[in-house]
């Protein structure tokens, strides 16, 4: 394990399809592209990143609990569709003392009405939305300073 502060980057359902899934909304970068860029940026910022993706809500809950147990500096969370549906993820974020930064590639408020409500935002430290993959970089810079 690294002696650098850890920032966990957790990604929810369908984000494994980035690069091919609705590129007009989500862009053409893959999750691997984003991970590679974040690893480079993390080295410059003096932190370590652990990037994970799951299509299963329970995995994300477990990883949030793990972030607390390993004393991560912060979590960057793109809960994807679970943002709008998961009280379990909301409760997991609220239950840990690790700051969580919510990230969305698109701007949910500029999309369908059902995407306008986030269960995560009220318990997140901050929210970055609508800036594409750059949102992850901005969140990592913020996380490195927390």
TrEMBL record:
State the active site: 26, 104
Keyword annotations for this protein? Answer: Amino-acid biosynthesis, Aromatic amino acid biosynthesis, Lyase
Report any one BP term from Gene Ontology.
chorismate biosynthetic process
One Pfam family name is DHquinase_II
- Chain positions recorded as substrate binding sites: 78, 84, 91, 105-106, 115
Q: What class of enzyme is it?
A: lyase
Q: Which reaction does it catalyse?
A: 3-dehydroquinate = 3-dehydroshikimate + H2O
Q: Name one GO molecular function term.
A: 3-dehydroquinate dehydratase activity
> Per its UniProt record, what InterPro entries does this chain match?
DHquinase_II, DHquinase_II_CS, DHquinase_II_sf
NCBIfam families, alphabetized? aroQ, PRK05395.1-1, PRK05395.1-2, PRK05395.1-3, PRK05395.1-4
Q: Family assignment? A: Belongs to the type-II 3-dehydroquinase family.
Assembly and partners are described as:
Homododecamer.
Protein name (record): 3-dehydroquinate dehydratase
Species the sequence originates in: Pacificimonas flava
């Amino acid at each position: 394990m690294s002696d650098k502060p850890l920032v966990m980057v957790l990604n929810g359902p369908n984000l494994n399809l980035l690069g091919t899934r609705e590129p007009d909304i989500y862009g053409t970068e893959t999750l691997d592209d984003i991970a590679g860029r974040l690893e480079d940026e993390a080295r410059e910022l003096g932190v370590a990143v652990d990037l994970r993706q799951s299509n299963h809500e329970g995995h994300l809950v477990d990883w949030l609990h793990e972030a607390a147990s390993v004393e991560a500096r912060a979590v960057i969370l793109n809960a994807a569709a679970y943002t709008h549906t998961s009280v379990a993820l909301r409760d997991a974020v609220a239950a840990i003392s690790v700051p969580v930064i919510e990230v969305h590639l698109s701007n949910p408020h500029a999309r369908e009405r059902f995407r306008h409500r986030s269960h995560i935002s009220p318990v997140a430290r901050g929210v970055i939305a609508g800036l594409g993959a750059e949102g992850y970089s901005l969140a990592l810079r913020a996380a490195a300073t927390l």
